[in-house]
Q: What sequence folds into this?
């Protein structure tokens, strides 16, 4: 085609004919901001951020749609362009949560809270899983310099969580169109597009169908290309940005698709298609199930050897020696290996060599997505049923109890519990998928690489090592391999697997249901929502007693839920500063919530629940008429309110409710009560009128300055002190960061400050010790010695560290079943697969 030469910002650039001005600028190392443009998408020109000035061209054309021409002179960073871009960006951000972008505490907040906080809805950057990779943040910092003059019009769309694998928060959407455009590019007919008009325009499906009904195949491309976090991988979203990407091949079915493994701290958190093309598209299993299978919490992690009727833990080497000894009597043709056909070629080669040369027996293969019924050759399957095989080695869930009982010796190498594993004379935990290195041949006959990217759990080993070590332990020669790559040249004549029945990448009905004989939906419960079979679910435990009736439920602002619950005994004895421990269901964890109000006459208590994790999500999904399984309380020591003529109380987030009973008690005691409430922005404030009923004065602070002063509780407290308000007591309740900031701001003034600490709790009675905190150098238990403590004596660094100790476990506990994300959870005692632990 030839090349052309142009000048951009005074720099000569040479580019091939047909390129756009934006492509020419990128080739010359010149940055032009853009949002809707993407190298894998056709030119669109919607966001208007990439406008430039071109000599001889009228106006401000978009560089992503303007063809570069020979001799063209382009400017990208003039004052007029920066002003125009800042106005465009300001309009765009007026419909986007922006409070953190203009918050004066942003740097300190992100220092103490380096990872985004889990939340139901994203109301600001601190709650956005896309925070660390957000282009909007960097653009705003560059163009707006912390000033957004237009008010934020928060749309308050409900987060859509009723489809498997993904959450959709359209409060973040800027209508860049990347998602539906990539869907159209890869699949031809997009499953999504822009619907509605004006302010209510958003991305959606025709006739508001669910994604499972819209033709969506859940390839994940729309999530991967979204620049704002509107579309999210429900499993991966809270792990943070990956720190490594490794090219590999999916071995979950014979298609053998290329993919990239995304890692965070040597843990696989997600997979992505290798490129945004139709040939590299992934099915829902490869895109969303792969990482969850590898990270399944009940993976086998240690070797076991049967002694008598019991399986006893053993070191790997001991288990190999024991298995070799147990297999030795069966070198007479009565041995068979039953192996997953989807294993790397190196493992299949060594298993075959072991079965035929060492054991003088036979080997059969089960298709990667099949079960024992699919074992070939068929006569081996019949011999196993007839009991003609006396000893076997299996590397999957291929034998039921009846078949296992017919064997005199059974060795199992697998990654997940099964009937065969329970019956094994020797059990070896197996490495899988991203833990393996080697090659595979797909159904087209192509050999593709498999990369070892993550460590194996516990004593798990790749199957090729297990086969090699068993052979060596039995004295066999010819197994001197120190790597999978050393075996690869011997695998050249392996046949390709049979073609898969159907194209799983284009039809959800053709998705593979099994991996190594295990139902994938047992490991990834969201797959049940698209019809994949799973093992019969165990019934939920019987409900003990009638539970606690929810008599009122409101969501006054996004993420915050007010529940009034019948609990007459708790209401009769409740005091300011106390809390209760709640179990939403019989299977829920125990979580503390502050008592924000109670009515002894009516026998009710009121809680404010901020949705930030699994259990708070379960509580948030309750509705009027539902019942909570268990509520224990009142717990904690009542707040021994220091005598005060003037009491100043500050609340943020759930603490807005937490300070209410203390304000009421001080008011009843005759004190002057000054109440301060803070929120990121005005539409996140609640209970202002209720607090005015028990306060002499209510002051407001917002991080973006949209109401009251710009700042937080600490600024208001300091302003009151320095203006001459002689308060006798300060109280601050809210997130750990807010209470720390208030503590550090008020300490120089020597006025007592009381805070309600919120460490991890389990039993709420001081028995477990999980809630220990350091106060003035002494260890205290927040559940019995607190929760109210002198804020100036708290070891805040230790508290922050302890609150983050279980961050990964908390992420793993987030519900993955689409039905667990609907607008409600089942009534107490009902059955729901959302109770799974995935």
A:
């Amino acid at each position: 085609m030839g090349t052309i030469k142009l000048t951009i910002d005074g720099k000569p650039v040479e580019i091939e004919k047909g390129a756009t001005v934006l492509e020419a600028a990128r080739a010359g190392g010149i940055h032009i901001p853009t949002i809707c443009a993407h190298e894998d998408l056709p030119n669109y020109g919607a966001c208007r951020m990439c406008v430039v000035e071109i000599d001889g061209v009228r106006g401000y054309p978009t560089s992503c749609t303007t063809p570069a021409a020979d001799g063209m002179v382009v400017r990208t960073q003039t004052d007029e362009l920066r002003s125009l871009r800042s106005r465009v960006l300001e309009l765009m951000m007026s419909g986007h949560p922006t409070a953190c972008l203009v918050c004066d505490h942003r740097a300190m907040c992100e220092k103490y809270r380096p990872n985004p906080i889990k939340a139901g809805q994203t109301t600001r950057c601190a709650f956005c899983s896309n925070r660390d990779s957000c282009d909007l943040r960097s653009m705003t910092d560059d163009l707006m310099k912390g000033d957004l003059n237009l008010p934020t019009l928060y749309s308050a769309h409900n987060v859509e969580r009723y489809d498997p694998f993904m959450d959709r928060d359209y409060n973040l959407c800027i209508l860049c169109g990347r998602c539906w455009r990539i869907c159209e590019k890869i699949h031809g007919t997009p499953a999504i597009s822009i619907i509605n008009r004006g302010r209510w325009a958003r991305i959606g499906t025709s006739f508001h169908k669910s994604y499972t009904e819209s033709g969506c195949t859940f390839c994940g491309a729309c999530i991967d290309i979204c620049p704002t976090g509107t579309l999210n991988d429900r499993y991966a979203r809270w792990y943070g940005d990956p720190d490594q990407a490794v090219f590999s091949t999916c071995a979950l079915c014979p298609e053998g698709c290329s993919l990239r493994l995304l890692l965070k701290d040597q843990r696989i958190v997600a997979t992505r298609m290798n490129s945004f093309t139709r040939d590299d598209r992934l099915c829902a299993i490869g895109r969303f199930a792969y990482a969850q299978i590898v990270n399944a919490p009940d993976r086998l992690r240690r070797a076991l050897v049967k002694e008598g009727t019991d399986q006893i833990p053993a070191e790997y080497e001991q288990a190999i020696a024991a298995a070799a000894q147990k297999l030795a009597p069966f070198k007479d043709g009565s041995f068979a290996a039953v192996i997953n056909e989807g294993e790397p070629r190196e493992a299949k080669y060594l298993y075959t060599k072991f079965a035929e040369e060492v054991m003088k027996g036979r080997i059969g293969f089960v298709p990667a997505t099949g079960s024992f019924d699919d074992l070939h050759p068929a006569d081996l399957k019949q011999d196993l049923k007839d009991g003609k095989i006396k000893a076997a080695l299996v590397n999957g869930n291929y034998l039921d109890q009846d078949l296992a009982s017919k064997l005199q010796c059974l060795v199992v190498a697998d990654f997940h519990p099964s009937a065969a594993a329970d019956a094994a004379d020797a059990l070896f935990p197996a490495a899988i998928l991203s833990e393996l290195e080697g090659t595979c041949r797909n159904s087209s006959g192509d050999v593709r690489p498999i990369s070892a990217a993550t460590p194996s759990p516990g004593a798990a080993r790749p199957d090729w090592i297990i086969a090699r070590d068993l052979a060596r332990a039995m004295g066999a020669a010819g197994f001197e391999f120190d790597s999978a790559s050393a075996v690869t040249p011997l695998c050249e004549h392996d046949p390709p697997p049979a073609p898969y029945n159907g194209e799983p990448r284009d039809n959800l009905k053709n998705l593979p249901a099994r991996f190594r004989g295990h139902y994938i939906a047992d490991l990834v419960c969201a797959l049940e929502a698209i019809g994949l079979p799973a093992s019969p679910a165990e019934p939920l435990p019987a409900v003990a007693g009638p539970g606690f009736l929810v008599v009122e439920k409101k969501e006054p602002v996004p993420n915050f839920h007010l529940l009034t619950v019948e609990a007459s005994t708790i209401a009769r004895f409740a005091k300011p500063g106390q809390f209760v421990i709640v179990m939403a269901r019989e299977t829920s964890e125990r979580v503390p919530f502050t008592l924000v109000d109670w009515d002894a006459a009516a026998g009710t208590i009121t809680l404010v629940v901020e949705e930030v994790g699994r259990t708070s999500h379960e509580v948030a999904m309750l509705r009027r008429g539902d019942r909570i399984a268990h509520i224990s309380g009142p717990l904690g020591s009542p707040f021994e309110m220091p005598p005060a003529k003037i009491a100043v109380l500050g609340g943020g987030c759930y603490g807005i409710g937490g300070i209410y009973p203390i304000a009421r008690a001080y008011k009843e005691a005759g004190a002057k009560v000054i109440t301060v409430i803070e929120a990121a922005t005005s539409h996140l404030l609640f209970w202002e009128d209720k607090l005015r009923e028990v306060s002499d004065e209510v002051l407001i602070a917002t991080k973006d300055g949209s109401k009251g002063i710009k700042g937080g509780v600490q600024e208001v407290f300091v302003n009151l002190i320095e203006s001459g308000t002689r308060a006798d007591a300060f109280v601050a309740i809210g997130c750990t960061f807010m209470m720390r900031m208030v503590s550090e701001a008020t300490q120089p003034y020597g006025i007592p400050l009381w805070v309600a600490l919120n460490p991890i709790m389990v039993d709420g009675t001081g028995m477990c010790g999980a809630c220990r905190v350091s106060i003035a150098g002494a260890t205290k238990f927040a559940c019995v010695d607190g929760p109210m403590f002198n804020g100036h004596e708290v070891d805040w660094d230790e508290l922050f560290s302890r609150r983050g100790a279980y961050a990964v476990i908390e992420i793993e506990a987030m519900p993955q079943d689409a039905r667990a994300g609907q607008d409600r959870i089942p009534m107490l005692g009902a059955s729901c697969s959302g109770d799974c632990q995935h």
Observations:
- The longest strand covers residues 548-557.
- Residues 540-544, 819-838 have pLDDT under 50 and may be disordered.
